[in-house]
Write a structure and sequence with these properties.
By secondary structure, the chain is an all-alpha fold. The chain has 9 helices and no strands.
């Protein structure tokens, strides 16, 4: 599970010796498509998932498009952003986080369509339907979560059988990245179901649900110090849990005061969150380019030191 992929040289003749060894970090840096899981990564993840919640509700509820048509439109947007990401030759923060945002937004409406229906408890005041098209499957949060957990386990099983790494920093193949994004889409949809359950059905409310998930994430941070617990496992649990944190935070921002929210509205909240996310993406882009520049110059210096002078 934790074995990294082996990067092999392509082309007509691979270099060997010290020069080839010194260029391996630069080759790997150029090939990787996914970021490191730093503190900035998790801040951006929570911002993107919160925006995904408010934007999904904006499409399906505020604009009255409905869960079904919103899901179709947002899933197509996800496909477009995913194609751009897959065709990219290296990690680009704007491409990567746009796909994360599209999975969060599509995951919001997909989860709502699976779990909800046109019964009164899901309708806003004065509304008689959930919008255009089918009104939702009404499976409920436990059944919807069970289906999504099963799908996620199937993806991980296929991933494990493929023999490819689970470490996102070391995923460089097309198939490995496709499995990664499939897991991301399902995990974000699952996280939405968990967040809605905590906010709407558990009795905890929006703030209570957010505090519960935050406590669970704090436990995961402590478990990182336990050598017997794989960090890869902790990463994926945290990735799922940050989605309900974003869902409850998004609902807290947008829902009426009578339901325990701040009633800031889906449009205003989405605009503010988008501005924050774009600022973080710009910061990540500058940081990534600076890191690449330092890596390339470090490789050049090592090559110069190891190359013997001409006789």
């Amino acid at each position: 599970m934790d074995q990294p992929e082996t990067l092999t040289a392509t082309g007509t003749g691979a270099a060997t010796g010290p020069t080839a060894q010194s260029t391996k970090p630069a080759i790997k840096s150029a090939m990787r498509k996914l970021p490191e899981a730093t503190l900035a990564f998790w801040i951006m993840k929570i911002a993107a998932t919160t925006l995904g919640e408010t934007a999904g509700d904006l499409f399906s509820q505020t604009l009255k498009i409905g869960y079904f048509l919103s899901t179709v439109v947002l899933f197509l947007i996800f496909v477009v952003t995913l194609v751009v990401q897959l065709r990219s030759r290296r990690y680009n923060p704007f491409f990567y986080w746009t796909v994360i945002l599209s999975t969060s937004t599509a995951g919001t409406t997909m989860s709502d369509f699976m779990n909800r229906d046109a019964s009164a408890k899901y309708l806003s005041a004065g509304a008689s339907s959930l919008g255009w098209g089918p009104q939702g499957l009404g499976l409920g949060y436990p059944t919807g979560a069970a289906i999504l957990i099963s799908l996620l386990l199937l993806i991980f099983a296929a991933w494990k059988l493929s023999g490819m790494t689970f470490r996102i920093r070391e995923i460089v193949s097309f198939r490995g990245e496709a499995l990664f994004w499939a897991a991301i889409l399902v995990s974000n949809t699952l996280g939405t179901s968990m967040g809605d359950y905590l906010s709407d059905s558990s009795g905890l409310g929006y703030l209570g649900g957010a505090l519960l998930v935050s406590g669970a994430l704090a436990v995961l941070i402590l478990l990182m110090r336990v050598p017997t617990v794989p960090n890869v496992l902790l990463f994926w649990i945290a990735f799922v849990l940050t989605r309900p944190l974003g869902a409850t935070a998004g609902d807290f921002l947008t829902k009426p005061v009578a339901k325990g929210g701040l009633n800031l509205g889906t449009a205003g909240s989405s605009a503010v969150l988008l501005a924050i996310l774009l600022g973080l993406m710009a910061y990540a882009h500058v940081r990534e380019r600076r890191t690449e520049h330092e890596t390339e110059h470090g490789t050049e210096r090592r090559t110069e030191r190891r190359t013997p002078p001409p006789s």
